[in-house]
Amino acid sequence: MDTAQSLDNRDAEAGRTPATQDKDHRPAMQDTPYPEHTVGHPFLDDPKMRLRDVNVFYADNQAIHNVSLDIGKNEVIALIGPSGCGKSTFLRSLNRMNDTIDICRVNGELFLERQDLYDSKMDVVELRARVGMVFQKPNPFPKSIYDNVAYGPRLHGLADKKYDLDEMVETSLRKAGLWDEVKDRLHAPGTGLSGGQQQRLCIARTIAVSPEVVLMDEPCSALDPIATAKIEELIAELTESYTIAIVTHSMQQAARVSHRTAYFHLGRLIEVNDTDTVFTKPEHALTEAYITGRFG
Q1: Helix ranges restricted to H, 208-250
Q2: CA distance 197 to 234
Q3: Which of 80, 227, 257, 273 supports an S-S bond with 223, CB 3.0-4.6 Å?
Q4: pTM attached to this predicted model
Q5: What is the pLDDT of residues 76-99, one digit of tens each?
C-alpha cells in the first residue's frame, strides 16, 4: 500500500478529512517549540538550488523566517503546511515573483546553481525563463493555443524560422500531454479549453523556453479529479527533464508526486525529509500534528 493510500485510509478511520482541525489539540500545538534548525535532511550534495537564511517581509510583517533548503536536480519537492504558513510566498521568492509586490522584500542567499538570483545584474526576464512558474488558477493568454506556447520562444528569440517554432510548439504540447487533444485546433483560443486542458497548456507554455526549474503553486486546486490525475502523471514525466517544486494543499498529492517533502509552519521550515518518512515517521511534533490532522 503506498503512502497516499495510507493517508486516505487513516483519515477515513479517524472520521475526518486531511484539513480537519481538532480544537482540543490546539493549545498543545501552540506550546510546541520550533526546532532550532530544520530537522531531517534539508541539504543535498550538488543541489540545483541552494537557499540559505531566506527571510521575506511584507512591509513590517515577516512572512518567512530564516529558511535554509536545497532543491535537488531532477527531483520533485513538495511544500506543505497549513493555509497562510508561507509556502507560496517562499515559492515565489525562487523566481523573484515577489518583486511585483511593492511592499515585499527578500533577503538571504538564493542561488540557482552558482548564480545569485538577487544579484543586481540579474536579468529577471531571463531568470523567469530559467525558473518557470505554473499558477493555482490556469491563466492562458487571450491568444490561440499555438500563440500561447509560441509566446516564450518568440520573446526570447529561440526560433529563427517558423519551422523551428512549429517544432517547439508541438514538442511542448506533447510533453504537456496535450498535443493529441489540440493538434487539429491550434489556432482556436486557449481560453476555450477545459480547466484541466488550460492548466496543461500553461505548463506547455512554461516548458517551451526549456526552463531548468518549474515552480507549481497548487496547480490542481481548481481542477476535477480526472484533470488532477493527468497533471500528476505529467509531473512524474517532467521530472526526467526538470527540477520541480510544488506547493500543494493535498497531503495525498504530495505523497503521490514528490521525492522529498518540506513542512512549513507559520513561516518557518520545520522539517524536510524523503516523502515516505515525512508521512509515516515524521521527526518533529509539529509535522506529526499536521500530518495526523490535529490542525491544518
Answers
A1: 225-238
A2: 12
A3: 227
A4: 0.90
A5: 999 999 999 999 999 999 999 999
